[in-house]
Each structure stands twice: as structure tokens, then as C-alpha cells.
Write a structure and sequence with these properties.
- Helices cover 24% and strands 24% of the residues.
- The chain has five helices and eight strands, in the order βαβααββαβαβββ.
- The chain is globular and about 55 Å long.
Length: 202
């Protein structure tokens, strides 16, 4: 399976609190809910297709709990391709604190997460998808475990909040595989890591 990260970000790279005002107020974040007014039908259709093609999901603990508390308790998951995928595919959570997950078909990875993920990636199948889970995504990049990156970039500068990539971190060249834009201005880029970047010399 290839490991694919799927991240909604603002133009300035913010990924915190995209879904609602109270979704994630860590660090005094006050600008939650910035993505939903821009999330048009085209973006919804595309994201539904992305969710449908996965074989399993991988989450960090915080994102897992947000998803379990919303998608995991829907009365009729079949009414949404996203909910249908989330409620019928295996879910893995990288966490040392989660001990009793309530969402069906969830496995907690708490030991050697890198080894567990290499084992999962070696299995036959299509995709192991990571949605949100910023801390986990940064760790996955640092450990060179990411095979593909899907970025949905919204036409807004949020101006505060946690960003996908930190101020300092590993450098990675990216190969652009696919790019498109919705009529509402959400751009979707698919990248594959391509090793170290090349730098110009004086």
C-alpha cells in the first residue's frame, strides 16, 4: 500500500480548525471554520472519490477523536461517500495515550510506529490514507514514509494557527503528478516526494 497524506490548507499553510469555530482552539486559535464557506460541490465530489479509493486510514489521536465524534456517529453513513468509507474500512491510530477506541475496526499503534507502518505499507492494496493529523504528517515526512501528498489549498490567508510544515524541518523535492482547480478557487495538487531538492550555487 502506498501512504498518502490528504491535507486541507489555507494559502499561508494553516491546517488548524478548518471545519468549525470550536474544532481546535489550541494556542488561542480564533479563526476556525475558514474552509467550509469555500468547500464547493466540486471539492466535495473529489474528496469523496479520494476517500472511496482507500484501503485503510491512519490518524493521529486528536484527528481520530474529531472524526470518531462526527463521522463515526452518523445515523446513516451510507448517505455520504466519506462517511461510508470511514465506517467500513480499517482505521489505525498512532497514539501512546489512546487505550480503548470506541470506533469499530480501529487498531492503536503505540509501539514502534515506523516499523508497524512499514509492515502495513508492504501489504498488497491501494492506499493507506492520512487525513488531517498534522503532527503525525510531519513525523511521517521526517521518517520518509510518505509516498504521495494531496493538498487542497483554499483561497484564503488565515493569518494564525498551526501550519502543515514547521518553520524548520527536512527539505524535500516534490514531483507534481496532478493539478486542478474548482470553480470556487480550491486548488488540488498531487505530489510525490522526489528526494533532496537541488539548490542553485553562486
Amino acid at each position: 500500500m502506498k501512504l498518502t497524506t490528504v491535507t486541507n490548507v489555507s494559502v499561508d499553510g494553516v491546517m488548524q480548525g478548518l471545519g468549525g469555530a470550536d474544532e481546535d482552539r489550541r494556542g488561542g486559535f480564533e479563526r476556525g471554520g475558514w474552509a467550509l464557506p469555500l468547500f464547493d460541490d466540486e471539492a466535495e465530489t473529489l474528496l469523496g472519490q479520494v476517500y472511496q479509493r482507500t484501503d485503510a486510514f491512519l490518524f493521529g489521536r486528536r484527528t481520530y477523536e474529531i472524526f470518531a465524534g462526527s463521522w463515526g456517529v452518523m445515523e446513516d453513513p451510507s448517505s455520504s461517500p466519506i462517511a461510508a468509507a470511514l465506517n467500513t474500512r480499517p482505521k489505525y491510530v498512532a497514539s501512546t495515550t489512546l487505550t480503548d477506541p470506541q470506533w469499530a475496526d480501529t487498531t492503536v499503534l503505540s509501539g514502534d510506529v515506523a516499523a508497524a507502518l512499514r509492515e502495513l505499507k508492504a501489504k498488497p492494496g491501494g492506499e493507506l490514507q492520512v487525513h488531517g493529523s498534522g503532527s503525525l504528517v510531519r513525523w511521517l515526512f521526517g521518517n520518509q514514509l510518505v509516498d504521495e501528498i494531496i493538498l487542497l489549498t483554499y483561497p484564503v490567508v488565515v493569518g494564525q494557527g498551526t501550519r502543515l510544515f514547521p518553520a524548520t524541518g527536512p527539505d524535500t523535492a516534490l514531483d507534481l503528478v496532478e493539478s486542478r482547480a474548482t470553480s470556487g478557487g480550491v486548488t488540488i495538487q498531487v505530489y510525490r516526494p522526489g528526494g533532496r531538492p537541488r539548490y542553485a550555487t553562486a
